[in-house]
Design brief:
Helices cover 0% and strands 40% of the residues. It is an all-beta fold. It is globular, with a radius of gyration of 12 Å.
């Protein structure tokens, strides 16, 4: 399911949101933003995409660990190669 105005497609499975970002997404679509809920994100495959939280250096997304993004924290994705499939779990 595409969500209008957002740069990903989303499916809900077992209470988790699976978001897929296409390799054709433009960098300008991956904007700094805040969310209204705490969340954990984790890629479902090896990738060279990164996530950056406000006042921090970008970090690699790894299938070995989840990244915690607190409510209201500015953050963004940094595009890598290929598609990105993320698991998003809300706290």
């Amino acid at each position: 399911m595409s969500i209008k105005g957002l740069p990903f497609k989303q499916k809900v499975m077992n209470g988790l949101r699976i978001r897929t970002f296409s390799e054709s997404v433009e960098d300008k679509e991956l904007k700094w933003h805040q969310d209204l809920e705490d969340r954990y994100v984790k890629p479902l495959h090896e990738t060279d995409w990164k996530v950056q939280l406000d006042d921090e250096l970008p970090v690699d997304l790894s299938t070995e660990s989840e990244i915690y993004i607190p409510e209201g924290k500015w953050h963004r994705l940094i595009k890598g190669t290929g598609n990105l499939k993320l698991q998003v779990k809300f706290k």
